[in-house]
Amino acid sequence: MASKDIHDILLVEDDPGDAGLVRIALRRSRHVCRLHHVKDGGEAMDFLRRAAAHGQAPRPDLILLDLNLPGRNGHEILEEIRGDTTLSSIPVVILSTSGADRDVKKAYALGASSYVSKPMDVEAFTAAIHSIEDFWFGTAQLPP
């Protein structure tokens, strides 16, 4: 299995506190990750399609997607990603405060790669981020 030296992660998160926790967790990581943060679904799709201000954006190796976003919600963005043949192979991990069965079920039905409920405790949140990156960048084989 080939391994990249630097992994690009797109974080779609409108909460600055949660985005900061992800950034801090990734700094303490065993993997070298470059975090790209956007605050809503429209900007996420611009990033993924290299549109508007994101003309030089890299193709992310992993997307961390919140469900509760301004404008289009995470389910709608996930559906759009999975419906686009140029983007559909990118792993998408739902990272949400919602642990509701209906949200989890809908996310998987729309093609989520996994679903992680955000822990409220900072240490548990950091551990969850490390688990996600260890799996995707250490265990799983990413699409080329």
List the helices and strands and how they pair.
Elements: E1 7-12, H1 16-27, E2 33-38, H2 41-48, E3 62-65, H3 74-82, E4 92-96, H4 101-109, E5 114-117, H5 122-139
Parallel strand pairs: 1-2, 1-3, 3-4, 4-5
Protein name: CheY-like receiver
Organism: Paramagnetospirillum caucaseum
GO biological process, one term: phosphorelay signal transduction system
**Which structural class fits the helix and strand makeup?**
alpha/beta
CATH topology: Rossmann fold
Please, what is the CATH homologous superfamily? Response regulator
Number of strands: 5
Tell the overall outline: globular
| CATH class assignment | Alpha Beta
Indicate the mean pLDDT: 94
Write down the oligomeric state. Answer: single chain
Cα distance, first to last residue?
Answer: 11 Å
**What percent of residues are in strands?**
15-25%
Largest beta-sheet details: 5 strands, parallel
Radius of gyration (CA) equals 14 Å
Counted up, domains total 1
The tally of helices reads 5
Give a quick precis of the structure:
The protein has 144 residues and is of the alpha/beta class. The protein has helices spanning 16-27, 41-48, 74-82, 101-109, 122-139, and strands at residues 7-12, 33-38, 62-65, 92-96, 114-117. The modification 4-aspartylphosphate is found at residue 66.
